[in-house]
C-alpha cells in the first residue's frame, strides 16, 4: 500500500478556547501546526477564528485574518500542505472565496452535499436548534470554480453515503474534471456512524484511482475506525477539531499527541507515513 498521508485538523469551527485547548491566534495556530508536523502530519486543515478578545470561539472570513494565520503556519512548517475549510450555511459564500483568493491553499474542503445537522441530548432535547447544512449543486459549482482559479485541490467532504455517490456524478457531468479526493466524515450524529464495517462500502463507492481519507469524530470508537482506514489504504486525519481523546481515553491538550497516536495506528497496520513532498506527489498538488 502507498504511504499514508496524515492530516491534522487544528481547531474546528466553534470550540470554545476557554473550555478546550484549541488554537485561535496565528501564533497558536503556528505552534500547533509545528507540533503536528513534528509528529508526522504533512497536511494541516485550518478554520480561521475571530481575533477580537472573547471572540475566539467564532469563525472569521476576513481575508486579512486568514492570510496572517496562513503565513504564520507556513513560516513555522516549511513545505506543509495547507488545507482550508470553506463550509458555511446559506448561499453567501463570499467570505470563504475571498479567503481562498488571499491564502491560495493547496487543498480546500468542498462539502459535496447537504445534511440535516442534528444532535440529541440524553434527555431527548436537541443539543442545538436543528439546521440544514446546505450544499446544493450550484453552491458546490461556485466553490469548484474558485478552487480551479486558485489552484486548490477540492477535498470532497461526504457526510453520508448518498453524498459519496454524488462525487462520481460531479465527475461524470464534468462539473469537476481533476483528481478526486474524498473525505468520509464519520461520527456526526445525523450522518454516517463511526463504524469500521461501513468503511469498505465507502471505499468501493469511490471512483477508481481516487484518494480518500476518514474524518473520525467522537471518542474511543474512532480509533478502530482509524485502524480500518489504514488497513484499507486510506489516508488519515485527526486533531482537536475531531476529538479531544487519545486511544487510552485520556484528554489531549494539544494536536501533537493525537497525531503521534494516529501515526502509531498507521504503522501498526503496516503503513509508512508520507512526508509533505511525498504527499504533494500523491495528491498532485
Topology:
Blueprint: E1 6-9, H1 26-39, E2 43-46, H2 63-76, E3 81-84, H3 94-103, E4 107-111, E5 115-117, E6 131-133, H4 137-150, E7 153-158, H5 161-172, E8 181-186, H6 199-205, E9 211-216, H7 221-231, E10 235-238, H8 255-268, H9 276-283
Parallel strand pairs: 1-2, 1-10, 2-3, 3-4, 4-7, 7-8, 8-9, 9-10
Antiparallel strand pairs: 5-6
Helix pairs in contact: 1-2, 1-8, 2-3, 7-8
Structure commentary:
With 285 residues, the chain is an alpha/beta fold. It has a single domain, classed as Aldolase class I (TIM Barrel), CATH 3.20.20.70. The chain has an eight-stranded parallel β-barrel, surrounded by seven helices. Strand 1, helix 1 and strand 2 form a beta-alpha-beta unit. The radius of gyration is 17 Å and the shape is globular. The protein starts with 5 loop residues before the first strand and ends with a helix.
* Basic shape: globular
User: Taking all residues together, what is the mean pLDDT?
Assistant: 97
Record field, number of beta strands:
10
Number of helices: 9
Total separate domains: 1
Low-confidence stretches: none
Task: State the strand order across the main sheet.
Answer: 1-2-3-4-7-8-9-10
Helical content band: 25-40%
Structure class: alpha/beta
Report how far apart the termini are. Answer: 20 Å
Task: Please identify the top-level CATH class.
Answer: Alpha Beta
CATH architecture descriptor name: Alpha-Beta Barrel
Rg, nearest Å: 17 Å
Strand content: 15-25%
Amino acid at each position: 500500500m502507498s504511504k499514508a498521508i496524515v492530516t491534522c485538523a487544528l481547531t474546528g469551527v466553534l470550540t470554545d478556547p476557554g473550555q478546550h485547548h484549541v488554537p485561535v491566534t496565528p501564533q497558536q495556530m503556528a505552534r500547533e501546526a509545528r507540533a503536528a508536523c513534528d509528529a508526522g502530519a504533512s497536511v494541516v486543515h485550518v478554520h480561521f477564528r475571530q481575533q477580537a478578545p472573547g471572540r475566539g470561539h467564532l469563525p472569521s472570513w476576513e481575508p486579512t485574518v486568514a492570510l496572517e494565520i496562513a503565513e504564520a503556519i507556513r513560516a513555522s512548517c516549511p513545505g506543509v500542505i495547507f488545507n482550508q475549510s470553506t463550509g458555511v450555511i446559506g448561499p453567501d459564500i463570499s467570505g470563504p472565496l475571498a479567503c481562498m483568493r488571499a491564502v491560495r491553499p493547496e487543498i480546500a474542503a468542498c462539502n459535496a452535499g447537504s445534511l440535516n445537522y442534528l444532535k440529541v441530548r440524553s434527555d431527548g432535547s436537541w443539543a442545538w436548534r436543528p439546521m440544514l447544512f446546505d450544499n446544493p449543486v450550484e453552491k458546490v459549482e461556485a466553490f469548484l470554480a474558485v478552487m480551479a482559479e486558485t489552484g486548490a485541490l477540492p477535498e470532497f467532504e461526504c457526510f453520508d453515503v448518498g453524498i459519496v455517490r454524488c462525487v462520481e456524478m460531479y465527475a461524470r457531468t464534468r462539473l469537476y474534471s481533476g483528481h478526486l479526493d474524498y473525505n468520509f466524515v464519520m461520527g456526526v450524529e445525523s450522518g454516517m456512524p463511526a463504524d469500521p464495517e461501513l468503511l469498505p462500502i465507502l471505499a468501493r463507492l469511490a471512483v477508481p484511482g481516487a484518494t480518500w481519507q476518514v474524518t473520525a469524530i467522537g471518542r474511543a470508537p474512532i480509533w478502530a475506525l482509524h485502524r480500518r482506514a489504514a488497513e484499507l489504504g486510506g489516508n488519515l486525519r485527526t486533531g482537536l477539531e475531531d476529538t479531544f481523546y487519545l486511544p487510552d481515553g485520556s484528554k489531549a491538550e494539544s494536536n501533537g499527541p493525537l497525531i503521534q497516536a494516529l501515526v502509531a495506528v498507521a504503522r501498526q497496520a503496516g503503513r509508512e507515513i508520507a512526508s509533505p513532498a511525498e504527499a504533494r506527489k500523491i495528491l498532485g498538488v
